[in-house]
Design a protein that fits this description.
By secondary structure, this protein is an alpha+beta fold. It contains three helices and eight strands, in the order E-E-H-E-E-E-E-E-H-E-H. The chain has a four-stranded mixed sheet with strand order 3-6-7-8. It has a two-stranded antiparallel sheet with strand order 1-2. Strands 4-5 form a two-stranded antiparallel ribbon. Strand 1 and strand 2 form a beta hairpin. 19% of the residues are buried.
């Protein structure tokens, strides 16, 4: 890419993708207070996501994280794909500073629909290609699985 004048990492979403007024939640039902999230509350889709967010919020390796809104997506040959999380770690203790994750309650890929599998494959290749391996993307079922990946 050197000399081309184009850097794919310079592509941006407008901030409105994170300020969509349709994101609604109720504390204790599908929302929780957060310290390290982009905002002071987070709306989650499942108990697995709630547990994951709690771990992100309390772990000293995490600098900041965001539950990605539906308006944030990457285009794939099988349609738009919306990853669940973007996480920035403090440098030093972890191998990668940026991580985009899809959280699933089960790591059994047989339970993931074929289209979702295709989108996940495309997302892995997408983040690898645009960042020279600096932005890591993977599917994790827990914060422990995530930490195992980034501390290798």
């Amino acid at each position: 890419m050197a000399g081309s004048g184009l850097d794919v990492m310079d592509d941006k979403y407008g901030t409105d993708v994170f300020t969509d007024p349709t994101i609604k939640g109720r504390l204790g039902v599908n929302a929780m207070k957060a310290k390290k999230h982009l905002y002071d509350h987070i709306v989650y889709d499942s108990s697995n996501e709630q547990a994951f967010a709690t771990e992100l919020d309390t772990n000293t390796n995490v600098a900041v994280y965001v539950k990605l809104p539906d308006g944030f997506y990457i285009s794939t040959p099988v349609g738009h794909y919306n990853p669940d999380w973007a996480i920035a770690f403090y440098e030093g203790t972890v191998k990668h500073i940026y991580f985009v994750a899809e959280t699933k309650g089960s790591m059994n890929s047989m339970q993931l629909r074929l289209i979702k599998e295709s989108k996940i494959h495309c997302a892995r290749e997408h983040f690898k290609a645009i960042s020279n391996g600096e932005v890591v993307y993977d599917v994790v079922d827990s914060y422990k699985t995530l930490l195992d990946m980034v501390t290798k």
